[in-house]
Design goal:
The chain has about 180 residues and is an all-alpha fold. The chain is built from eight helices and no strands.
């Protein structure tokens, strides 16, 4: 079944077709929510709410358009609503693994520490910068798709990505300097 076929079936009320879409996108939706909030429980709740909203609004989806940016826009709205409702304070990501990553016993401690450092640096970005970084690189969306999902124009996305890259470079440079001094 293709994504377009699944959407058409969903628009006629087919829950199995929607299950296909959920299975296809649940990892990226949860992972994106997790990377935007830094909290596993909240991310699970947000992902569930995003899929529920998508099911309720599937009839409004314009066929022929990409489904992923539409779904991610719903998720971004859920994250923003959650912040307004609870004033969520995001924290560095727990542990050191990206959500959905399988344990890789062959992974070196150094690469796992590098990834944890990067995750903490991303978690330390402003919500606006973290949002575009997570959508662009974790959710693997184009700048145009990020703009659509975040409700921004492409220039704003590019600007935020540029500033986020600068902040990440600075944070990671500072982190390496501190690590070097401790040795």
């Amino acid at each position: 079944m293709t994504e377009n076929e699944a959407v058409q079936l969903c628009q006629r009320g087919d829950r199995d077709a929607f299950r296909y879409l959920v299975e296809r996108y649940q990892g990226v939706v949860f992972g994106t929510a997790y990377n935007m909030t830094g909290n596993r429980a909240i991310a699970e709740e947000l992902a569930q709410e995003a899929f529920l909203s998508a099911w309720k609004g599937i009839r409004t989806f314009r066929r022929g358009r990409p489904f992923k940016p539409w779904l991610m826009r719903i998720l971004v709205n859920e994250v923003m609503n959650q912040r307004r409702r609870r004033y969520v304070v995001t924290t560095p990501i727990e542990g050191g693994d990206w959500p959905g990553d399988a344990e890789d016993p062959a992974a070196s401690l150094e690469s796992r520490l590098d990834r944890q450092t990067l995750q903490q640096a991303i978690a330390g970005l402003s919500p606006e910068h973290r949002q575009v970084v997570v959508l662009r690189y974790f959710a693997e969306m184009s700048v145009q798709e990020v703009a659509r999902a975040a409700g921004l124009n492409e220039g704003t996305v590019k600007s935020r990505l540029f500033r986020a890259h600068q902040a990440l470079r600075q944070r990671l440079s500072d982190e390496q300097g501190v690590a070097g001094e401790q040795r």
